[in-house]
Design a protein that fits this description.
The chain is of the alpha+beta class and about 110 residues long. It has two helices and six strands, in the order E-H-E-E-H-E-E-E. Strand 2 and strand 3 form a beta hairpin. The chain starts with about 30 loop residues before the first strand and ends in an 11-residue tail after the last strand.
Length: about 110
Amino acid sequence: PGPASNTVLPPKLEGMNTPGATLGRRERKLGTTICVSGISDREKKTTVQEALGEFGHIVRIEIPSGRRVAFVEFGDKRDAIEAMKYMDRKMIGNSTVTIKMADDRGPGESRA
């Protein structure tokens, strides 16, 4: 869908409906992200996926470099709660981890 690649858009329509324009501004659901603490600083995302993927659809995994933590966002709040409940104080890779709900509000964002 959309104009063919050889179609010239009128100036007022340029930049409208640009694919991927909202890619970085995805709305996150509250309570779907868990914080996995105590993970090895060399742990791979695939290891985290294998350990937690059985609880539900994982939207994203972030492992900030230099920190022993991973943030795992699930598609559904219940899946995040189940993963936290059953995997807290269990092994992921070679580390015993602590899992809590993450505060997934962005900077300056508030929830009413």
